[in-house]
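Task: sequence design from structure.
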């Protein structure tokens, strides 16, 4: 792996240089960046892969429930094009995984997708002139929009300051991009993070972030499993099925809760489930021949398993999903106050 990174290093230098130039052009105004008259909160990261953006966006949507709120995403891997406003016909295919999840779980929030976020926000304001705030999902590198508040997430298990630019690493842009962040959140932390380690992380982040950007630490809080399949109680013996970027925190939690994972069907992030996948799941259930074996998945996967032709099969399986929410290790009220004061200032 070390030698592979050395071979890829020249390409990382080239890509990193291109991204530095792009950021310079936006920072100096040579490339246009649009700012809007209402608060626009961007949630993003510097890396490819899961840093926990979806639970943090959901945290914001709950925090902002007192405001007419919209969330706008690109709609990664959706089958539609252009601007799409979620309605009763929406699906994961038309919106993408995460936007469809927001649509299902936050009925009071306007959900839309658009590759062009500037045009998307303008369209939202035309359709919903009463909007009070827009939350942009995965928009750290979408420089045509100038957010009023930029929230950078970095994974505790692979912080941006230890990584390299693509393709030698998984950074979408050089580490210096952290200086655009108004808030930095270190996600997926162990609940018992030691003060010495927290201080060391803060010091590393401060090498790249602005001096006035506060740093918070969050972890995941898992709820009681929710049944979406055939009736029955959840067994401690499970087949785990996931289509997310990083299932390690969930696996670790389940093992801590004394679940026995007989099999883990780990699909790629944003996996589009088919009847064949559920047939494979049924075969796995039969092959294991373990009494009272249940199937556990994530909320992100569950919303796709409850669509169209899959619904009939899903209802026949002993299938549950486990909810997840963000929990700040400490000073969560300061994070809330920072965001709410920012929104109230408009």
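Answer:
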């Amino acid at each position: 792996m070390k030698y592979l990174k050395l071979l890829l290093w020249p390409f990382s230098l080239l890509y990193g240089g291109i991204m530095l130039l792009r950021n310079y052009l936006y920072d100096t105004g040579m490339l246009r960046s649009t700012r809007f008259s209402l608060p626009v909160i961007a949630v993003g990261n510097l890396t490819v892969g899961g840093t926990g953006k979806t639970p943090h966006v959901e945290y914001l949507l709950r925090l902002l429930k007192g405001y007419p709120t919209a969330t706008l995403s690109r709609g990664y891997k959706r089958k539609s094009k252009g601007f799409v406003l979620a309605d009763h016909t929406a699906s994961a295919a038309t919106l993408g995984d995460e936007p469809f999840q927001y649509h299902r779980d936050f009925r009071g929030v306007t959900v839309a997708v658009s590759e062009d976020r500037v045009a998307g926000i303008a369209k939202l304001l035309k359709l919903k002139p009463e909007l009070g705030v827009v939350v942009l999902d995965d928009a750290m590198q979408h420089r045509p929009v100038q957010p009023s508040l930029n929230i950078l997430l970095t994974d505790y298990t692979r912080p941006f300051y230890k990584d390299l630019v693509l393709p030698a690493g998984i950074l979408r842009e050089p580490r210096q991009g952290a200086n655009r962040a108004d808030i930095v959140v270190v996600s997926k932390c162990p609940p018992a993070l030691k003060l010495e380690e927290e201080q060391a992380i803060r010091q590393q982040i401060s090498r790249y972030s602005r001096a006035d950007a506060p740093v918070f630490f969050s972890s995941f809080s898992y709820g009681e499993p929710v049944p979406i399949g055939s009736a029955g109680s959840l067994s401690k013996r499970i087949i785990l099925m996931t289509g997310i970027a990083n299932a390690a925190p969930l696996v670790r939690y389940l093992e801590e809760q004394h679940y026995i994972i007989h099999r883990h069907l780990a699909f790629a992030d944003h996996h589009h489930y088919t009847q064949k996948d559920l047939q494979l799941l049924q075969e796995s259930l039969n092959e294991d021949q373990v009494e009272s074996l249940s199937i556990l998945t994530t909320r992100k996967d569950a919303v796709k398993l409850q669509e169209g032709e899959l619904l009939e099969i899903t209802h026949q399986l002993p299938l549950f999903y486990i909810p997840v929410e963000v929990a700040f290790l400490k000073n969560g009220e300061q994070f809330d106050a920072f965001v709410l004061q920012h929104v109230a200032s408009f």
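The first helix runs from residue 2 to 27.
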